[in-house]
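<goal> How does this chain fold?
<sample>
Here is the protein in question

***
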Amino acid sequence: MRTLAERLRTLREGRRIYQKEMAELLGLSLRGYQCYESSESEPKLATLIAIADYYQVSIDYLVGRTDVPDFHTSNAEE
């Protein structure tokens, strides 16, 4: 899922943190996290929730179902 990988990278770089820091935050190996950003694998639901919570975005935004990152904004407001 290319959108997820792209958004993970964009969000991480926006916070100016390294992949290693994100991996540690999620309890993953560096390689495990790198696989998410390169679309080699996808996170489990619990990890996806942790990522969304960390960046304060919706899971729908992470996976490309919406371009509105704020999960407090409804589709009616787009």
In short: Helices lie at 2-15, 19-26, 30-37, 45-55, 59-62. DSSP finds five helices and no strands in the chain. The domain at 2-77 is CATH 1.10.260.40 (434 Repressor (Amino-terminal Domain)).
